[in-house]
């Protein structure tokens, strides 16, 4: 039997088309890129997230001279989230980046790497709530996804270990 999988997402021309709450979060993600530690890639990633209770948390990529030791902005954010608001669901996370490499652009949305998708899915499962994602660079198009897990179909999770 043939099966198919798909998911819907929204795409906007720029930040001005977002509602007030999403605009504020994306603006903070863009600003937070300034706090990235990315001297090796010059690819500064910033993430900002809004908890259900109105609190916010931030993350940036943290690189290392031993390259594999580096951590993505999303997982830095989730680790902080878990510490400061334990088990509180995250309603929305905005992810932005500033590509400072010589020929780089920062106007096309990026989406989380595979390892971060796994972490995002775990956080959703643990807090039993979908996490919206807002993806955009420093300017230009914005993609909104209703649940981070949609980026990881056929995922391995706690259910798989029962
Ligand atoms: N990076 C993130 O922080 N998040 C992403 O979604 C993609 C990639 C970081 C990892 C590394 O420090 C740099 O961006 C280039 O890959």
Topology:
Layout: E1 10-12, H1 20-32, E2 43-51, E3 56-60, H2 73-84, E4 90-99, H3 114-127, E5 132-135, E6 142-145
Parallel strand pairs: 4-5
Antiparallel strand pairs: 1-6, 2-3, 2-4, 5-6
Tetrahydrodeoxyuridine (THU) is lined by residues 38, 41, 43, 45, 61, 63, 70, 72-74, 110, 112-113, 116.
Task: Describe the fold and architecture.
The chain has three helices and six strands, in the order βαββαβαββ. A six-stranded mixed sheet has the order 1-6-5-4-2-3. It has a single domain, classed as 3-Layer(aba) Sandwich (Cytidine Deaminase, domain 2). It has about 160 residues and is of the alpha+beta class. About 25% of the residues lie in helices and about 20% in strands. Strand 2 and strand 3 form a beta hairpin. The mean pLDDT is about 95. Tetrahydrodeoxyuridine binds next to strand 2 and helix 2.
Placed side by side, the strands forming the largest sheet appear as 1-6-5-4-2-3
* Largest β sheet strand count, sense and barrel closure: 6 strands, mixed
Question: Topology as H/E string?
Answer: EHEEHEHEE
Radius of gyration: 16 Å
Approximate helicity band: 10-25%
So, the CATH homologous superfamily? Cytidine Deaminase, domain 2
Which assembly state applies to the chains in this document? single chain
